[in-house]
Amino acid sequence: MATIVYAMLTSLDGYIAGPGGDIDLPIPEEELHQHFNDEMRRTSIALCGRQMYEAMRFWDSPDREIAAEDVERDFAHAWRETPKIVFSTTLREVGPNARLVKGDVEAVARSLKAETDGEISVSGAELARHLARAGLIDEYRLYVHPVVLGGGKPYFQSGLLLALKPLGTQGLAQGVTLLRYAPVVS
């Protein structure tokens, strides 16, 4: 059985995107980027909401093969090699190594969790909200940048009530602190 993990970069005040919807967080430099490369390589399946999937399609570009940085080429390979399930009611098609799902998010996630070994990543705040409310997220990973955005799209969606227990913290490059939590099961 897989572990479903919701991991995102976030500002110190809890936002994954700024007030205008742009990712206003610092771009990961080599050491931090390598951490995310390693995380992607450990991912058995990536569950993506439409917005996050469309943002990440950048890594499908052939231009990533000639990227100036080895760490970027490495991430592009890891992204392309990881199977993706994209949840969207508006997309008509998805790219390579991705499957489009328009149906029941919770049922698909439950099935994948039961049939898969390793980690299943969740990318996108709206998708994470659905899975969190269904009790399907096993671990929350907040990669906290020492910046304040002052508003925008929050890591945790409004109205979501969770009791969490700490699993640990880790200091990373660029002053980022990884905070890991698991839901308290009653």
UniProtKB/TrEMBL annotation:
<dbReference type="GO" id="GO:0008703">
    <property type="term" value="F:5-amino-6-(5-phosphoribosylamino)uracil reductase activity"/>
</dbReference>
<feature type="domain" description="Bacterial bifunctional deaminase-reductase C-terminal">
    <location>
        <begin position="3"/>
        <end position="177"/>
    </location>
</feature>
<dbReference type="Pfam" id="PF01872">
    <property type="entry name" value="RibD_C"/>
</dbReference>
<protein>
    <submittedName>
        <fullName>Dihydrofolate reductase</fullName>
    </submittedName>
</protein>
<dbReference type="InterPro" id="IPR050765">
    <property type="entry name" value="Riboflavin_Biosynth_HTPR"/>
</dbReference>
<dbReference type="GO" id="GO:0009231">
    <property type="term" value="P:riboflavin biosynthetic process"/>
</dbReference>
<dbReference type="InterPro" id="IPR002734">
    <property type="entry name" value="RibDG_C"/>
</dbReference>
<dbReference type="InterPro" id="IPR024072">
    <property type="entry name" value="DHFR-like_dom_sf"/>
</dbReference>
